[in-house]
Amino acid sequence: MSKQKRIVAIHDISCVGKCSLTVALPILSAAGIETSVIPTAVLSTHTGGFTGFTYRDLTEDILPIVDHWKSLNLGFDSLYTGFLGSFEQLKIVSELFDTFKREDNLILVDPVMADNGELYKIFTPDFAKGMAKLCGKADIIVPNITEACFMLDEPYQAGPYKKDYIESLLKKLSDLGSQRVVLTGVYLDNDTLGAATYDKKTGDISYQLSQKVEGYYHGTGDVFASALLSALLHDFELGKAAKIAVDFTVESIKRTKEAGTDIRFGVNFEQSLPNLIKSLDLLD
Ligand code: PXL
Q1: Is residue 1 predicted with pLDDT exceeding 70?
Q2: Is 221 touching ligand 1 by the criterion CB < 6 Å?
Q3: Looking at the whole model, is its pTM more than 0.85?
Q4: What DSSP line would sit under 55-68, residue for residue?
């Protein structure tokens, strides 16, 4: 049995509407990974589709938490960030990376800020530039196509996409500074949807596409990134890790669609966890 990995997940807690920490924690725990957290904010719901949500910013708690952990000599096998709510949080998280980065650990940045050609309401195009800088400190980044376009300061185009276009995005994204890139929301025709992966060191590119399920389901980016990280921490190679994450996400979306659930509440990933555990080869 290999040693259990310990990571830290740095996201908000949205109390209702599964996303960020309420998705990352159960998925990574099911994958057998000890997951410490830094909550960046507490919201009554996420910001995508509910009105009147509360928002308690926890930025000022982050550095004292880090200082305490430094005094305990804590280290992490991975640092995983998602939704960050302000420029100040970008700066503090960047410092946190400097503190905890090691040769052998993995920084995954999911630059959560936009979808379907638009930034989420609380963000400005300038924020995307700040996020692009943070991506430069990551080992792996997981943007969707909208986030990629905002970070590269390019106009968003709707698909289906040509491979040439996807591959030019992958390469420009890795030029932001991270060796590996997983681009989500990729489709080359109208029947499939999934992710493309790129490893700058080896030059390997892969496409992990699955049957497209119509409809926009909230929090699926967090479901995907958490499953991807789970697979990478179990030493699956990048393409295979992305396939595991695509399959897990699609299964969760399909189940949610069949149940007719309000899309704002997120997807039923909980009942896909047994299959995730199987696909990670964790059953004896
Ligand atoms: O799933 C991404 C996400 C995470 N956290 C908050 C959000 C969103 C997307 O809208 O609003 C608070």
Answers
A1: no
A2: yes
A3: yes
A4: EEE-HHHHHHHHHH
